[in-house]
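Per reviewer request, we include the raw input and output of the structure prediction for the construct analysed in the revised manuscript.
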Amino acid sequence: MMPTQARSSQPRPRQRHPLLLVLVAIAAGMVADRYLGVTIEAWFLVAAAALTVWCVLHCTRRDRPAQAFVLVAAGAVAGAWHHDRWHLFAVDDIGRYADVDAEPASPCRRTT
């Protein structure tokens, strides 16, 4: 019974969940695009700037602040992805031809 007490008296190692921070950054980028309406060019500019700052900080061995800029870049790329999926359409996309007012979709038009 003594070995069990010796193991339980030691503090448990701190659990780390690094992908949780990435998930939060990605979700924040998508929410920001939803409510702020940022252009896709701005998202790519923010991502490029954040990666540039990350590179400088990483090369100077300032890893803790560099991690924050990697998360900013991940959020900016997610915001650009969200903007692309919700706001940009192909030339032949059906969304370009849909009206705001709803009407029945049928191959034959009613004449009555």
